[in-house]
Amino acid sequence: MKIITLIENTSCDERFACEHGLSLYIETARHKILFDAGKSGAFAANAAKLGVDLSAVDIAVLSHGHYDHGGGLAEFMQQNSRAPIYLSRYAFEAHLNATGRDIGLNKALQQSDRLIFTDAELVIDEELALYTCNDRARPFAMPPCGLSMVENGERVPEDFRHEQYLLIRENGSRVLISGCSHKGILNIAEWFRPDVLIGGFHFMELGTTGDDAKFITDAAQKLCAHQTQYYTGHCTGQEQYRLLKSLMGSRVQSISSGDVLEL
Questions:
Q1: Residue 28 belongs to a domain with what CATH number?
Q2: How far apart are CA 246 and CA 155, in angstroms?
Q3: Domain limits at 230?
Q4: How far is 179 from 184, CA to CA, in rounded Å?
Q5: CA angle 161, 164, 170 (to 5 degrees)
């Protein structure tokens, strides 16, 4: 399996653009997958430099309905005319940041016949499956980050029901791809216990001293209790990653625009 980071908050080389967003290209034995499309079309420019043919992608997955993961969706649909796009049926609902600014998707794309809306579990084939885990308990709470949604005309705290995870099974290994892990990285690691977990941990709103440092330290210990190798970036935060790295050592690695990972 090959996983290429098309866009991320940082870059491994000045040739590749970076932005607050995430996009991964994944090649398995059966599929060429686009997981998320970043904030803009920059992921596509990086893809061209990396030799990734977006028109050959046969499956696209959107992790959740935020602009920094689906902002480049229109660009992808222009370059690729055939791949179905799997996303939660809640993805186009109103999603707001702490100031009330819309951080959702482009509603103009909502009527595309290429969209396949998911809910709960969807097994695509023997290799790929999608999970929302909306019915599972979340014993490890994430610190509030001020994100909200609109329900019955009122702004309420976000429950992240629009977030889904891609589980890939290949050669006896289970690789889980998560966008931002809004439902809690500790919960997700516990639910799946994969061999490899790739995605953001959403620690960027936390500090690295006091109670916040204790939260990250406790999280590192719990993550290391699983037999999982972690690759993270984007919403994890750079300072927060450095703290995690000091605690987890080789069990956690960072990803950046242009990185190529062979599993």
A1: 3.60.15.10
A2: 39
A3: 2-262
A4: 11
A5: 160
The residue count of the chain comes to: 263
Q: What's the CA gap between 218 and 222, in Å, rounded?
A: 6
- Provide the number of structural domains found in the chain: 1
**Measured distance CA(253)–CA(111) in Å, rounded:** 38
The per-residue pLDDT for range 33-80, each reduced to its tens digit, is 999 999 999 999 999 999 999 999 999 999 999 999 999 999 999 999
Supply the pTM of this predicted model: 0.97
